[in-house]
Amino acid sequence: MKKNLLAVLSASLFLSLILLSGCTGTSDGNDADQTDTGHNFSFTLLDGTVKQLKDYRGKVVIMDLWATWCSPCQYQMLELRKAYQFYPNDQFEILSINTDPRESVSLIQEFLDEFALYGYDLDWVFAKQLDSLKDYNPSETIPKLVIFDQKGNIYWEHNGLSFFSEFPDGWTGELITLKEKIDGII
Fold first, then answer.
1. Number of C-alpha atoms within 13 angstroms, CB side, residue 26?
2. CATH class label, 38-166+173-183
3. What is d(CA 95, CA 44) in angstroms, rounded to the nearest whole number?
4. Residues sharing a CB contact under 8 Å with residue 159, sequence separation 6 or more, in sequence order
5. Per-domain residue ranges of the chain
6. pLDDT tens track for 122-134
7. pTM for the complete prediction?
C-alpha cells in the first residue's frame, strides 16, 4: 500500500511539474538582461500624457527639478539647452519636472514661450511632478539635477546651479561640469 501511495504521489508531482512549467513563459537564457532594476517614477507631460522614467531606458537622462519663480532654475535652463544641443537625442534626454504644485501647465507654457521670444527654444521634455520625488530631493532644493544612466540608475546628483562646460569668471562653487559627467557615461 505504501508503495502504491508513493507511486501515485510521485506521478502526481511529475504531472504537476509538467503542467506548471507551461505557466512560466519562455526564456532565451538572458533573464538577467530583462530584469529592470533601475529607478522609476511617473510624471505628467504638458499635454496631459503620463510618462515614466523607464520609458527613457537606453538613454542618459538628466532629471531637472525646478519651478518658474526660481532664478537659478531659469539660468539652469540655458545650461541644459547647451547640453541638449550638444548630445544626440537618441542617446540623451532631459526631463525638466516642475515641482511646485501651485504652478499650472499654462504658467509653464508661458515660461517656455518667454524663452522662445528671446531665441532660446527649450524643446526637451517638460512635465509636472506626479509621483513623489522626495527620494531624489529630500531637501526639496531647486534647481536639482539627477543624472540617470542608460539602465535608470543614479549616476550623479547636484543641488544648485550646474554649468555645461565653462564656468563664469569668479565662480567659486563646485568645479564639475555637466559635460564631464555626461561624457563619462555616454
1. 1
2. alpha beta
3. 11
4. 139, 141, 143, 144
5. 38-166+173-183
6. 999 999 999 999 9
7. 0.80
